[in-house]
Give the backbone structure.
Amino acid sequence: MSSRIRTLLLSGEYICPIAYAVEYDQLQSEPLRQSINEWLGEIDRRLARIGDDGAFFMAPSQLGVSENQKVREMLTRFRDVYEPAIKMLLMILQAKEGFTASPGDYVQLAELEQAVNETSTLELELRRLHGVISGVSQKHTNREFLKKMLEHLRGEGLLIISNQQSEVYQVTGKIDHLHSILGFIEENTLRPEDPDSPSGQEPDMIDSLG
């Protein structure tokens, strides 16, 4: 069994063909997946996958009633944890034509910078992300703002550097996990118009990215 795969799974990584091409190809082997599942079973975990061709990741072996409740609570917290990333992805969706926030999508810093510089509304939207993007300041230029935004998403594992020289990034398979979380929350969280809704927050970002 690949020790690299074991390390990635235990670290909570999502093994997709974009971020971890070699390990993803190795996991196409049924005997290897079976071996990994046996190993993970010793710690009450299993090898899971998003769809038929999505990323592999580690998940609990079984989910009972209490576990499902915990998952729902966890997913609600995930919505808050992922909120900054969602806002940044929505920014890219507005700035880059053809971008769908899907695995394999490319986004270039220079292309985003041009779009923002040419459209005042986009620049305003970008500046509103102050306090959301890690390490950004209003003193930064649009290019610096965007660079830090892309690096923030890269730090979340949602992007990788595809071409360092051209500053081109690529969306990883972990984005499918984000879509799955948003979809689950949308289906299982009370809507704001529901009088029993505890938050009263409109899930605009969920509807836009979901």
About this structure: Residues 65-95 form the longest helix (31 residues). Residues 5 and 23 are 6 Å apart (CA to CA). The chain has a mean pLDDT of 84. The radius of gyration is 19 Å.
